[in-house]
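Help needed: design a sequence for this.
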């Protein structure tokens, strides 16, 4: 029997997933949590074979929780679920050394199969997302350009970014022009969207 902990903040989704998984003859959901901060304590208490974790959780995100599991209880396998099919999200998940990555809109039977594969020591990655991540490549921006773009994405204008980074407003504007050019964006908003979808900011 594969013992599973399920971390999902949406109650109806969590209930549906538990009902679905408990229909499987070899899978049992032994614990459930609705926020990321409860994952590691529950994993310590119940020692599941596989922790199925939604990436977007309140208080502590799923990837951070998965990384903590990897550090403290490496025998527990981790399978990430996400509704965000972004290549950058997959890269972050792989950097956190999770064992599996599945989109929430995958067919129901795929989840049970992924849990079995992960429990058996295999790595499971959504194939379309893996291809997209491969095609996207590395981030072309420098660390300073990423800092500027992160502040812009948070709503700061050029003078505010200049103060935050101890730069002149003109230098910030030059950075933004370079960023937009490197990302092939139409404008600042488009550059932010491209970087967010790629998981670079």
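Sure. Designed sequence:
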């Amino acid at each position: 029997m594969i013992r599973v902990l399920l971390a999902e903040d949406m109650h109806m989704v969590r209930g549906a997933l538990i009902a679905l998984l408990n229909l499987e003859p070899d899978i049992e959901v032994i614990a459930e949590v609705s926020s990321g901060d409860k994952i590691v304590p529950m994993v310590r208490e119940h020692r599941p074979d596989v922790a199925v974790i939604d990436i977007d959780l309140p208080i502590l995100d799923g990837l951070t929780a998965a990384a903590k599991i990897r550090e403290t209880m490496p025998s527990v396998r981790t399978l990430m679920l996400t509704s965000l099919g972004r290549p950058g999200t997959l890269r972050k998940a792989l950097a956190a050394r999770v064992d599996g990555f599945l989109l929430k809109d995958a067919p129901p039977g795929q989840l049970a199969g992924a849990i079995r594969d992960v429990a058996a020591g295999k790595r499971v990655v959504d194939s379309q997302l893996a291809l997209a991540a491969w095609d996207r490549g590395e981030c072309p921006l420098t660390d300073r350009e990423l800092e500027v773009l992160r502040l812009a994405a948070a709503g700061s204008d050029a003078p505010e970014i200049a103060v935050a980074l101890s730069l002149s407003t003109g230098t910030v504007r030059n950075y933004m022009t370079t960023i937009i050019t490197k990302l092939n964006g139409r404008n600042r908003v488009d550059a932010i969207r491209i970087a967010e979808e790629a998981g670079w900011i």
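The CA atoms of residues 195 and 201 lie 6 Å apart.
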